[in-house]
Specification:
Elements lengths: L4 E2 L8 E2 L3 E4 L3 H9 L7 E4 L8 H4 L5 E4 L23 E2 L29 H7 L26 E8 L11 H4 L1 H6 L3 E5 L2 E7 L6 E9 L5 E7 L3 E4 L3 H10 L29 E5 L12 E2 L5 E8 L1 H7 L4 E9 L3 H14 L7 E9 L8 E8 L5 E7 L3 H21 L2 E5 L4 H6 L34 E3 L13 H19 L2
Parallel strand pairs: 1-8, 2-11, 3-4, 3-12, 4-8, 5-19, 12-21
Antiparallel strand pairs: 6-7, 7-15, 9-10, 10-11, 13-17, 13-20, 14-15, 16-17, 18-19
Helix pairs in contact: 1-11, 3-11
Length: 503
């Protein structure tokens, strides 16, 4: 059984020579390491933090912001083993087929392959997330309570599954959960407190020559330095840090590694989660519990219902993905009560037991090259430039989701089951209600064309034979599903490629 190595104990100028170096010990890095366990490849897993949270190390993530109000750059991600799985909510749902397809109404959309390319890896990803049996939309048929009645149209009840919850705390922490497995794999050596300070290319710029490494002492000051010389390097540090390391490593390529077409850091995305976007009235009384909270099935699956647009509706109405959620019950004001009475009389239904609910959502943003990360003149304790995020959300993003909500309202009336009030019509209203999913995506997007992406269909950085990127930073479009399950499936696909490529 191997032990975790505290990089602070390595002598200065130590040189480590693994077959594969994985930069980052979050869900992508840990999943990739485990997928390569017991292979013939010698794997170094380089984690910049320790086993537990340290505020001095967390400060390495702080940065600046401009544009739309967003979450502080050192608040939405965590710099210790397990990465952001240490505070995730456990939401799992596969991306839809349309999420991979070019959409005429959405410039820059489309992956270089269809969803079927990662489908063989979903089951293993589901297991790593500890999200129970793979059922998702099929699982809704086993819920005993009748679902919300919707007339024929563009929206339907879909489902989240959840990572296994223990003792009423957050779901699977990848660092703590898989620590034993990482120690047990003889070919994996995890390094803690091991910060990559630069990715150094060979003089011709076509291969990674080495990774410059640095550590911090107990007070957050620079300590020792060492070198990792891998045959292959995989950047799995999250969408923000992936971009930062590539941009900051600019000695051979002046614009940054992989940034010959000025794409690194561009197309940053998250899922906007505005609150109270609409008020849902159900004429017949309370909704089934599965809409407002999780329910556990006999087979152990933990599920929650959401409302999603169909592929055909997205295509015919030119909308992006969304997942509308029921958040909590609300009391209608006098105007709302009068509207319910009037509508019920017009439809000829009994609304004496009507219940009202606030709706939230997770929205898919359209790709935007100007929503981006840039380096600043400020530097962290190891001398790396800090990031600045220029966060943007277009009026069209709100308008497209309003179109989806309007369809939900139409289907409720068609079914004579309820009605909907849309709460926001102006940009300021949306922004005031805005929250974010902390789902960082898109800064090293995938495309077969180097002029449209940073990595190719195998997650290899264009023009650099032994550098790959894992995680949701390679997503060219984002869907509305939470990224963790999907980025793990994509990473497992990468592991098969690396087994063949690193010989």
């Amino acid at each position: 059984m191997t032990s975790f190595i505290d990089a602070r104990t390595l002598p200065n100028d130590t040189i480590v020579t693994p077959d594969i170096a994985i930069i980052g010990g979050g869900p992508a890095g840990i999943s990739l390491a485990l997928a390569l366990a017991n292979s013939k490849l010698n794997v170094a897993l380089l984690e910049s933090g320790g086993i537990n949270f340290d505020p001095k190390i967390q400060k390495m993530y702080s940065g600046a912001e401009a544009g739309v109000r967003y979450i502080a750059l050192d608040a939405g991600r965590l710099r210790f083993l397990g990465g952001s799985s240490n505070h995730w909510g456990g939401f799992c749902r596969p991306l839809d087929e349309i999420d991979f397809e070019p959409r005429a109404w959405s410039p820059y959309s489309g992956w270089p392959f269809a969803r079927k390319e990662i489908e063989p890896y979903f089951q293993k990803a589901q297991s790593l997330c500890e999200a129970g049996p793979w059922i998702y939309d099929q699982g809704g048929r086993t819920i005993a309570a009748p679902l919300l009645a919707l007339g024929q149209g563009g929206l339907y009840t879909s489902w989240f599954q959840f990572s296994k919850t223990r003792d009423s705390v957050l779901p699977t922490y990848f660092g703590h959960r898989y620590e034993v497995e990482l120690r047990a794999a003889k070919n994996i050596t995890p390094y803690l407190f091991a910060n990559v300070s630069a990715i150094r290319l060979a003089p011709d710029g076509q291969t990674v020559d080495r990774l410059e490494m640095a550590t911090l002492d107990g007070h957050g000051n620079p300590a020792s330095r060492f070198t990792v010389k891998p045959r292959t390097a995989v950047l799995a540090a999250g969408a923000m840090e992936n971009a930062r390391l590539l941009l900051a490593s600019n000695d051979v390529m002046p614009t940054g590694v992989g940034n010959q077409n000025d794409l690194v850091g561009r197309f940053f995305a998250d899922h906007p989660i505005p609150r109270d976007v609409a008020t849902l009235v159900v004429f017949g009384g309370a909704l089934p519990a599965c809409y407002g909270t999780t329910v556990t099935l006999e087979n152990g699956a933990i599920m929650r219902a959401v409302i999603s647009p169909t592929r055909s509706f997205c295509q015919s109405h030119a909308v992006m993905g969304s997942l509308t959620t029921v958040e909590n019950s609300v009391e209608l004001d006098d105007t709302g009560k009068a509207a319910v009475v009037t509508t019920a009389l017009a439809l000829g239904v009994n609304a004496s037991n009507a219940k009202a609910y606030s709706l939230g959502c997770g929205m898919e943003l359209q790709p935007d090259p100007d929503r981006r990360l840039l380096l600043t003149g400020d530097k962290d304790a190891l001398g790396l430039p800090r990031l600045k995020l220029d966060m943007r959300i277009a009026d069209s993003d709100f308008a497209l989701y309003r179109r989806t909500l309007a369809e939900l309202g139409r289907q409720l009336l068609a079914a004579r089951s309820g009605m909907l009030r849309l709460n926001y019509s102006h940009r300021e209203q949306w922004l005031k209600a805005m929250d974010w999913g902390n789902h960082h995506m898109g800064t090293t997007r995938m495309s077969s064309d180097p002029k449209r992406g940073v990595v190719n269909a195998n997650s290899q950085v264009h023009g650099i034979s032994n550098l790959y990127v894992a995680g949701s930073s390679v997503f060219p479009t984002y869907g509305s599903s939470n990224p963790t399950l999907n980025l793990i499936a994509l990473t497992l696909r990468l592991s098969d490629h690396l087994r063949k490529a690193t010989v």
